Amino acid sequence: MAIERYNPREAETKWRNAWAEADVFRLSNDDTRPKYYVLEMFPYPSGRIHMGHVRNYTMGDVVARYKRARGFAVLHPMGWDAFGLPAENAAIKSKVHPAKWTYENIATMRAQLKTMGLSIDWSREVATCAPDYYRHQQKMFTDFFKAGLVERKKSKVNWDPVDMTVLANEQVIDGRGWRSGALVEQRELSQWFFKITDFADDLLTALDRLDRWPDKVRLMQRNWIGKSEGLKLRWVLDGAPAGFDELEIYTTRPDTLFGASFMAIAPDHPLAANLAANNPALAEFVAECKRMGTSAETIETAEKKGFDTGVFAVHPLDPSWKVPVWVANFVLMEYGTGAIFGCPSGDQRDIDFARKYGLPVVPVVLPADEPARAAGLAAIEAGTAFDGDGVMVNSRFLDGMSTDAAFDAVVARLEAQMLAGRPQAARQTNFRLRDWGISRQRYWGCPIPIIHCEDCGPVPVPAADLPVRLPDDATFDKPGNPLDHHPTWKHVPCPACGKPARRETDTMDTFVDSSWYFARFTDPFNEAEPTTRAVVDRWLPVDQYIGGIEHAILHLLYSRFYARAMKATGHLGLDEPFAGLFTQGMVLHETYRSAAGDWVSPAEVEVFTDNGQRHARHRQTGETIGIGSVEKMSKSLKNTVDPDEIIATWGADTARWFMLSDSPPERDVAWTEDGADAAHRFVQRVWRLTQEAAEIIPPAGTALPPVWSDAAIAVRKAAHKALAAVEDDIEKLAFNRAVARVYELTNALHKALGDAAGDASLKSALREGFEFLAIAIAPMMPHLAEACWESLGHRDMIVNTPWPQTDSSLVIDDTITLPVQINGKKRADVTVARAADVAEVQAAVLALDAVVKALEGKTPKKIIVVPQRIVNVVA
RNA sequence: GCGGGCGUGGUGGAAUUGGUAGACACGACAGACUUAGGAUCUGUUGGCGCUAGCCGUGGGGGUUCAAGUCCCUCCGCCCGCACCA
Questions:
Q1: 3-state secondary structure string, A215-232?
Q2: Which residue among A206, A249, A310, A673 is buried most deeply as judged by most CB within 10 Å?
């Protein structure tokens, strides 16, 4: 009897409808089973989903469906990171309102995501641009404000004078606005800040406890927070203008103070500005420094440059010793005090600088042990600083001390030394982390709920007046902030005194929106409050968060801060929102280029093999197309494939299966036609074999045979081992290995199917085997799994079927075959009882022909038996 | 420059974390079935011998009974970044 090919379009629609009808993915907050919260980073509604989304959401769905089958109450929601600049750009360009643009994109993308067959509780869907979402964000802003976690202060911004708007760093290209092309100005604006620095130390130390986060991400956050322990130290100036009696510097190496040979201040240090006023050459130098770019590349390649001010600083440990004060291009005003002392022997920048300008280089720290000491000294003479720990030299009372001891000794002395009525120095912990500026001069964002009153100052909008809604009738045809232009919106009475006042027209950074959505998902039904304490505390933290590495720092750090701020204001009860984090790799594709050099999209290209060589031609024109390297999918390289087309052609299960196969999930994966084809062939194979099996196996629920044949036992072992391995692999997110285990099981079942005639117990074993196969693929290819499950005679859906318990007596063999090495090379195998002790294994090994032959009657020097692993005979 | 990661067949990748290198898949080759197949099935597929043998995880060296895995060194690629005092 011919078996019909599996039709993914029909079957996938059928099962998705069945799940929707039964509402199987709706989660009740009253569910008392153990909880599991799976979350993938929610998408920006850019218009259409891309293959990166397919990979991300497939991985999350595997975990969600698997945990569901294991009996957990799984929270697996979806929403939209819906505020942001692209919507506003679309408004300017296409005259479409940002809200319309955004909601249309959401509708498209929601429909696309639904075709993937994700086990999402759509009743919890949120969009951050919806007033019923951002009203709670505004409430929390006012709570943070009252708790002292919000601050208004001046900060430098990139200002586009044509568009009259603030630009993000990445929107400044070669010093010009990306859209207007105008030269960008640095402007000081009053901005709202969240005081993330209040939590700097806690955000740092808590990283140690996030043991289910990638080390790489934790390291990046650690570096970003950038804690350093040092000393603030004031030097008396000699020859400086009035008002500049002292120069305060910050150093992490007070131990190297006797190696000081110059002071260096930032080009925008007040002292530099003051001196430049009467010194055209210095003014020119300062201007030159400011022209220099700030990218890592320019900075790394920039030469160390300085300008001698003629001012001197008096050494704090020797009043007779004066060091020159320079302005240097490598000192940053934003960090520490904008001034340093230069110790050339201990810092590469300082030694470069000193050698360029002929300043002294005095070694003050050298390695303790002799060969290293001489090498260190030679290196310093050759221009390489020694910045390691060691022993003090040329440092008077510090000589012979360790670096640490010298640090403490200098600090102790300078803390006790008074200058102008205060200790001359004080220990200080510095952080690189700055407060989080959230003000954006844009329309399409969450309005900052503040009203500015001449008498009362900034007043938070009362809770009863929330949300502060965006006006629908904003216009986008002139530069600047549409909220500011709006004729009426900003004019309101002061909530405190009733006098005419005006609204804050800045909106919040969209990172605020995404810093708490995971908490909102726990109870998006609560209209009164952002969260419901009993609910949010039950479901958080997110057990498994999955997303791209590009959010390693900002989004994840802001969310960690936000959880702390929400805790401080009573909105939830924990510090760390994400217990487990996984960062998945990107999706790549081969690139294609026409003879004219234009990029050609994969959809237009036909790849064929001729004489073992891969070639490509244009599907329509037949033109020869060059095959290029495999690159990250991008519009500019045109090497994207459209998930809609993939799903229409092959079905969602094929796309999902491909995304999980082969490449480890944290690594990049290249989408290939061959791979998709192979994944689809496997879909058909599982279906076909299941149909074949269904014709011969006993009906569902038939009693198990009292005795199993050897072939039946072999099938049962294969099935139980495969399922146990899949469990283990999914728990570890090793989806590629789970896929391999499924292939192995399928191969075993296929082989056994041919031998089943006349062996009733084998047929029973095959029922179990094919059921296990369906169970094993269910998290990965859920539609196919349902179809197979139905074919196997089940009336309940597999989505409601608990994951079976594997039988450990079938998973663990009672005899094992160990490889036998002679002198480290494998020469034989030995099969022994699993429980065999070392002596028994040795005896069995010594009886092997290969061993007897190799030993030639001699006694082996040693026999190493590694239980359950290997035997090595040393002759 | 600093920090992190990686290097395994023609390709993507496995390898129980010091214990049989190449699981599984792609591709390729040969054959079967077929009107046909880009379907399906059966084989083969790291290299050299092609016989019971030797070599082989970027190169070189080391530790060990045993190294893809640990150490040293060199080469190559990728990612991140902050001239952070």
A1: HHHHHHHHHHHCEEEEEE
A2: A249
